[in-house]
Amino acid sequence: MAEIKKPDVEAAIASEDKKGSDAAVHRLNDVISEIGMGEYQWKLFYLCGLGWIADNMWLQILATVLPQVQAEFQIPDAISGMGTSCVFIGMIFGSLGWGVISDIIGRQTAFVATLTLGGIFGTAAAFSPNFTLYCILLGLMGVGVGGNLPVDGALFLEFIPKERQSLLMLLSLFWPVGAVIGAIFAWWLIPSYSCDTAAAICESASNRGWRYTLAAMGLITFAMLIFRMFFIKMRESPKWLLSVGRKEEAIETLKDLARMNGKDIQVSIDDFPDVGQRETQAESVRRFIHSLKELFARDSWLSTVLIWATWMLISVAYTMFYGFLPKFLKSVSTDAPLSLGETYRNFFIQTLCGIPGSVAGTYLIDSKIGRKGTMAGGAIGVGISLFLFTTTGNSWWQLFFNCIASFLSNLVYGVLYAYTPEVFRTGHRGTAVGMASCLGRIVGVSAPFLSGILIAQNPNYALYLSAALFALMGVVSFFLPIETRGKAAL
Fold first, then answer.
1. Taking burial as the number of CB atoms within 10 A of a residue's CB, which of 47, 137, 151, 316 is the most buried?
2. Per-residue pLDDT, 14
3. Is there a contact between 100 and 434 (Cβ–Cβ < 8 Å)?
């Protein structure tokens, strides 16, 4: 009789565990489908949307206040993107850190803590006496806000029926709303309370607009936090509870959801015989480490690598352009120079154009085009639009091409944020999505520095590179091995 090696035994046991886990998740998906989409899930939809608003609101507002911050602190173009880079550094730790925390101790804690940190340090940045402290506080704000998207997307996906997974794409509708909110306050406050950026000296007393704007964003973030804490009685994800052996709590959560939806379900512990006993904290860590190995298993490594590559490409491309958009709008036009008010008016119009992109994406991802086709076509379209932006000096044509780019970029970001958690399993979903976001933030740190250097030479150089990276992301998306259209997340 042939001797069975230990690694073969361990592999066989792991395979059986995975089959048992799959059976339990499939049963849980059936129960959630039976419960349907009801009051709790719709409230959770809006509360998760607040995280998407906060993420993009803070990123966009840094672009809007950049010229005034640069003028007040006398910062040269080459390092003017330091504040944005510090936010990305904070988001590196936040996206991965909160993703890991949510996989080990649950989704609830991270869901509240992200906005708490974002509100505290974002508001504090409005009172910065110098550029160094401004950058540090923005970095700490990024630690909080950076966890919103990986945590919120995983949490919402694990509560909704598989028939309604396209709603994860619709969550991206809140992404451009965040940009619109930032643009409204910038348009209102900055032109009225700012110094002339061309002046030799910009006194703080005559340049309060950017501080008022950051303070307003901080207060809005705190308002979002209050909604998260009191709008609904927050429940832990039933899929996460089941993954750590807390079957009784998972079943109680399912019964609560059913009652709120007016349904009577029959579910008990016996429906999940393959799920182990409740884990200790040490067992949770060991289970988490084991589940990470699945990201690079033979049947999943290519998907993991390509997904992470798309996140890195779009992060650099998006930040290079949108992180400096007001400067582009003001500097590349060959018409009469735009006033400060006109610049922020155009910025507001452009952000508004992103909202219908998210709505269009919600329908396209469930069409024959699917997630992959929508993402690939949209990214290539953004690249073309940005290139056309460089071919004209007319401010109205630039606004037109910019609106197309905004529409498509929000569509692409929405599909990517919906597609990524669908591909990964519950046991490591938060970490996998967090790592994707983290890698995007890591390479995104270079974008402000690179843009600053290129803008100093020729603004079009930064635009050419951004357009090329968007197009490359579209090509990579074509080669993603998994199409999740019509499939339930495990």
1. 151
2. 44
3. yes
Q: Which uninterrupted H or E stretch holds 178? A: helix 174-189
Burial of 193 (C-beta count, 10 Å sphere; 0-12/13-18/19+): middle
Question: Between 285 and 226, whose confidence is greater?
Answer: 226
Instruction: Fill in the amino acid letter for 317.
Output: A
What would the pLDDT profile of 103-125 be if each residue is shown by its tens digit? 777 888 888 889 999 999 999 99
Give phi and psi for 197, each to the nearest 5.
-65, -15
Q: Global pTM?
A: 0.72
Dihedral over Cα of 238, 240, 246, 247: its sign: positive
Question: For residues 167 and 160, what is the distance between their CA atoms, to the nearest angstrom?
Answer: 9
Cα–Cα distance measured from residue 164 to residue 261, given in angstroms and rounded to the nearest whole number: 15
**Amino acid symbol at 259:** R
**395 touches 195 (CB < 8 A):** no
Average pLDDT over residues 346-357: 83
Instruction: Determine contact, residues 66/322, Cβ cutoff 8 Å.
Output: no
> What single string gives the DSSP state of each residue in 386-443?
HHHHTT---HHHHHHHHHHHHHHHHHHHHHHHHHHHHHS-HHHHHHHHHHHHHHHHHH
Position 230 scores a pLDDT of 87
Q: SS3 of 36, please?
A: coil
CB-based contacts of 400, cutoff 8 Å, min separation 6: none
Taking only the tens place, the pLDDT of each residue in 26-43 is 778 888 888 888 888 899
Sequence-ordered list of residues with C-beta below 8 angstroms from that of 326, at least 6 positions apart, any chain = 63, 64, 66, 67, 343, 344, 347
As a whole number of angstroms, the distance between CA 302 and CA 296 comes to: 8
Which phi and psi (to 5°) does residue 274 adopt? -85, -5
User: Nearest 5 degrees, angle CA 307-CA 110-CA 31?
Assistant: 75
182 φ, ψ (degrees, to nearest 5): -60, -40
Q: What is the DSSP string of 320-362?
A: HHHTTHHHHHHHS--SSPPPHHHHHHHHHHHHHTTHHHHHHHH
pLDDT on residue 3: 46
Identify the CA nearest to 365 among candidates 473, 483, 488.
483
In contact, 131 and 82? CB cutoff 8 Å: yes
Helix H, strand E, coil C: the string for 362-381 is HHHCCCCCHHHHHHHHHHHH
**Residues ≥6 apart with Cβ < 8 Å to 99:** 147, 150, 151, 154, 430, 431, 432, 433, 434, 435, 437, 438
Rounded Cα distance, 480 and 302, in Å: 8
Q: Which residue in this structure is represented by tokens 């990123």?
A: 59
